[in-house]
UniProtKB/TrEMBL annotation:
Domain of life: Bacteria
Signal peptide: none
Keywords for the protein's UniProt record, in alphabetical order: Heme, Iron, Metal-binding, Transport
Stated name of the protein: Group 1 truncated hemoglobin
InterPro entries: Globin-like_sf, Globin/Proto, Hemoglobin_trunc
Keyword Transport recorded: yes
Cited Pfam families: Bac_globin
Positions annotated to bind heme: 46, 70
Species in which this protein is naturally found: Lentisphaera araneosa HTCC2155
Single Gene Ontology MF annotation: metal ion binding
Length: 118
């Protein structure tokens, strides 16, 4: 069975997804302030690596933990939900098939506890 990483188109597909995703986030008044003073290209690089991992493209995640790298942001469940909704919009723009989109959203949901501040 083909991994989600391959179904989305590998690294180029993830980069295309992120090229759709970040403009949505940057234009969303509810979350755009999270990206103030952020090097967007560096962020996309980190996100590409992470998504490659969770979508089954690389066997090991070797960078700082999500919890450690996001704790200073004080992400709420509401912000996480908005982000997931914006990710869904971006996945739809890159024409990922429905079952792969559902799989991607399920996988993305699994990182909620690492990103949401308690």
């Amino acid at each position: 069975m083909q991994s989600l990483f391959h179904k989305i188109g590998g690294v180029p597909g993830i980069e295309k997804f992120l090229d759709e995703f970040y403009p949505i986030m940057l234009n969303d008044d509810r979350v755009k302030d999270y990206f103030k003073d952020i090097d967007l290209e560096a962020l996309k690089s980190h996100q590409t690596f992470f998504l490659s991992y969770i979508f089954g493209g690389i066997p090991e995640y070797t960078r700082q933990s999500l919890k450690d790298s996001h704790s200073h942001l004080k992400i709420t469940n509401e912000v996480f939900d908005i982000t997931l909704d914006n990710m869904l919009k971006a996945l739809q723009k890159v024409n990922l098939d429905t079952s792969s989109t559902v799989a991607a959203m399920s996988i993305l949901e699994t990182v909620r506890d690492d990103l949401v501040s308690r």
